Amino acid sequence: MRAIYITGFMAVGTTSIGNELGKVLDLPVIDTDQYIEEKLAWDIPSIFERKGEMYFRDEEQTALRELPRENVIITTGGGMVLRKENRCFMKENGYVITLESSVNTIFNRLHDDLSRPLAAGKTRRELQKLFKHRQPYYHDADLIVETEGKSIPRIASEIVGWIKIQML
Predict the structure, then answer these.
(1) 80-125 pLDDT tens trace
(2) Is the predicted pLDDT of residue 161 greater than 80, yes or no?
(3) What CA–CA distance (Å, rounded) separates 100 from 76?
(4) Any long-range contacts for 80-83 (C-beta under 8 Å, 24+ apart)?
(5) Per-residue b/e over 136-158, b at no fewer than 16 CB within 10 Å?
(6) Which letter does DSSP use for residue 9 in this model?
(7) Whole-number Å distance between alpha carbons of 85 and 117
(8) Are 17 and 2 within 8 A, CB to CB?
(9) Does residue 115 sit in helix, strand or coil?
């Protein structure tokens, strides 16, 4: 089976949904942010602080190409889709699934989270501006799943149903 790439804005649930999909489909799950942190032996805020966002984006692009392309679920950081090359690579090598939620829900999940450099200390309005800027990139996906008010198993079930149809 082709790789399954789970993407979406920060705190939308890519890791949680990816892990649930991994259990349901009996596939390994690799999170690109964790992969980069392990590779560089720095957490994401430290990478941003020491090397800057562009360095991190370069590492994301490299990680994407280093990871398996079959029989795997790959959960991506929220900025993975910013580069056209990454969006094209994911579409060529797998199914790209974007998770969506409201800005209010995302803001409530992020307001005390210092582990996300691009969200730390942001107002709801600033976060909404970033969200709107990225939204067209997230919509360049094979499937968009609204997560608002849904349980993790329900979201995973929707995705599994869609994947089964694609494999027919």
Answers:
(1) 999 999 999 999 999 999 999 988 887 777 666 555 555 566 677 8
(2) yes
(3) 14
(4) 80/7, 80/32, 81/7, 81/134, 81/137, 81/138, 81/140, 82/57, 82/134, 82/137, 83/57
(5) ebbebbbeebebeebeeeebbeb
(6) S
(7) 23
(8) no
(9) coil
